[in-house]
Write a structure and sequence with these properties.
This protein is an alpha/beta fold and 399 residues long. The protein folds into two domains: 7-52 and 295-398, Aspartate Aminotransferase, domain 1, CATH 3.90.1150; 55-290, Type I PLP-dependent aspartate aminotransferase-like (Major domain) (Aspartate Aminotransferase, domain 2, 3-Layer(aba) Sandwich), CATH 3.40.640.10. The protein is 39% helix and 14% strand. The protein has helices at 7-14, 28-39, 55-66, 79-93, 108-120, 136-144, 163-169, 192-205, 261-271, 282-290, 294-317, 343-354, 385-395; strands at residues 42-43, 103-106, 127-132, 148-153, 174-180, 208-212, 237-242, 255-258, 321-323, 330-334, 356-357, 359-360, 376-380.
Length: 399
C-alpha cells in the first residue's frame, strides 16, 4: 500500500499534533478532559457551559422535531433562520443584509471558518494573518489549504497587539486577515485603534477580513463592534458567528456567515461539499433565540461577568497573577508565582494537586513563540457559580 500523505498530514502538523516520530497526538483538550474524567477534577479547561440555554430555544427545537423538521434543510439554511440572522445584524449593529444572498448557515463557526479559508486561499503563495495565541483550528485549516500562517503576538497582561508588528505582518501576500474578537483564548476585546488599523491594512493590501465573533454577546464593559460596520470594511469582510456560545447550545453546531454576496457564494461553493447541510430542527430554534428580547442578551453578559469575577478572585487567592478579560468565556492566569516554568506540565499536575483542570496557553501558540507564553494558563468561567466556588476552594490549596 502507498504511504498515507497529503492534506491530512499538513492539517495535523498545522495543529501541532504530529509527534517527532510522525505519530498523531491527541489534542490537549482531549487529554485534559480525559484527565478530568479519570481524576474527578473540575473541568475548567474546555469552553462549554454546564447549564442549558433558554427554555424558549430548547422548546423550539423540540417542536421542530415533533413537527417533522428532520430531513435536509435548504443548502443555504432555512429561510427563517437566514431572516433572523439578517434581523439580528440590523438590530444590534445597523447592518442591512439580504438574507437570501448575503447570509449562509453552517455547521457551527468552525465549519464556517474552514469553508471560508478553503474558498479564499490558493496555496503557498497566500498568507493568513492571525493574532497569537489563537484558536487551534486556524492553523489546521490554513495548513489544509496549503497557505502560510503569519502570527502577530498578543502579550500579557492586556493582550492588545502592537500596531507596528501588525503592520509588518500584513503584506501584499496577505490574502486573509483573520480576527477573533472577543478573543479566545485571552478574553481580549480589541480597541478602536486596532479595528481601524485592521481595516486600513486590508484595504491597502487588498486582503479579505474574516472575523470570528462567536462571543459577540459576551462583552463585559461595552457593546461589541463588528469590523463590518466600519467605513470601507463591508465589501471585503466575512463575518462569522454562531448560536452555541450565546444560547449555551454548543453541541447543536449552528453557525452562519454574512457578507457581500460574491464572498458568501464562494464560501457556499466549498461548504456544500463539507457537511452540505446540518441541524434541521436546531435551525428554527436558533432563529427563536436570535429574536429574544434585549433583556436576555443583557443578562447573559452580566451573568458571565459575575462568573469571571468569581473565578478571578479565586485564582488570585490561590496565588496566580490574573489578566481580567473584557469578554468571552475565558480568563488567563500566570502560574509563575506558583513555581511553574512549563504551563503544560503544570496543567497535567493540577488535577492531582488541586482537583481542577485548565489548559496551557501554549496549546494556542506556534512553536516559535511558545516560550513567550510558557507559564500562562487558561481557565473557563462558563460553569455554574457553585462549580466555580468549589474550584476556587480547591485551588486555594495551592497558596
Amino acid at each position: 500500500m502507498r504511504p498515507i500523505s497529503g492534506a491530512w498530514h499538513r492539517t495535523a502538523a498545522g495543529a501541532g499534533l504530529v509527534g517527532a516520530d510522525g505519530s498523531i497526538r491527541p489534542t490537549i483538550f482531549a487529554e485534559m478532559s480525559a484527565l478530568a474524567a479519570r481524576t474527578g477534577a473540575i473541568n475548567l479547561g474546555q469552553g462549554f457551559p454546564d447549564e442549558d440555554g433558554p427554555a424558549e430555544v430548547l422548546d423550539a427545537a423540540r417542536a421542530a422535531i415533533a413537527n417533522g423538521a428532520n430531513q435536509y434543510p435548504p443548502g443555504r439554511g432555512i429561510p427563517d433562520l437566514l431572516l433572523a440572522v439578517a434581523e439580528h445584524q440590523e438590530r444590534f449593529y445597523g447592518l442591512r443584509i439580504d438574507p437570501a444572498r448575503e447570509a449562509l448557515v453552517t455547521a457551527g463557526a468552525t465549519e464556517a471558518l474552514a469553508a471560508t479559508l478553503l474558498a479564499l486561499l490558493d496555496g503557498a503563495d497566500d498568507e493568513v494573518v492571525v493574532f497569537e495565541p489563537h484558536y487551534d483550528a486556524y492553523a489546521a485549516v490554513a495548513a489544509l489549504a496549503g497557505a502560510r500562517l503569519v502570527t502577530v503576538p498578543l502579550r500579557w497582561p492586556d493582550f492588545q497587539p502592537d500596531l507596528d508588528e501588525l503592520r509588518a505582518a500584513v503584506t501584499d501576500r496577505t490574502r486573509v486577515i483573520l480576527v477573533n474578537d472577543p478573543h479566545n483564548p485571552t478574553g481580549a476585546v480589541f480597541g478602536a485603534e486596532v479595528r481601524d488599523e485592521l481595516v486600513r491594512l486590508a484595504e491597502r493590501h487588498d486582503a479579505v477580513l474574516v472575523t470570528d465573533e462567536v462571543y459577540e454577546h459576551l462583552v463585559f464593559a461595552e457593546r461589541h463592534v463588528p469590523l463590518a460596520t466600519l467605513p470601507g470594511a463591508w465589501e471585503r469582510t466575512l463575518t462569522i458567528s454562531s448560536g452555541g456560545k450565546t444560547f449555551s447550545t454548543t453541541g447543536w453546531k449552528i453557525g452562519w456567515v454574512t457578507g457581500p454576496a460574491p464572498l458568501v457564494d464562494a464560501v457556499l461553493a466549498v461548504k456544500q461539499f463539507l457537511t452540505y447541510v446540518n441541524g434541521s430542527p436546531f435551525q428554527p430554534a436558533i432563529a427563536t433565540g436570535l429574536r429574544l428580547g434585549d433583556e436576555f442578551f443583557h443578562t447573559i453578559a452580566g451573568t458571565l461577568r459575575a462568573k469571571r469575577d468569581l473565578l478571578g478572585a479565586g485564582l488570585r487567592a490561590a496565588g496566580f497573577d490574573v489578566s481580567t478579560p473584557a469578554g468571552s468565556y475565558f480568563t488567563v492566569a500566570d502560574a509563575a508565582a506558583l513555581g511553574a516554568t512549563d504551563a503544560a506540565a503544570f496543567c497535567r499536575e493540577l488535577p492531582e494537586r488541586a482537583g481542577v483542570v485548565a489548559i496551557p496557553l501554549t496549546a494556542f501558540t506556534t512553536d516559535a513563540r511558545r516560550t513567550e507564553y510558557a507559564t500562562l494558563v487558561r481557565f473557563a468561567a462558563c460553569k455554574r457559580e457553585d462549580v466555580l466556588e468549589e474550584a476556587a476552594a480547591r485551588l486555594a490549596a495551592l497558596a
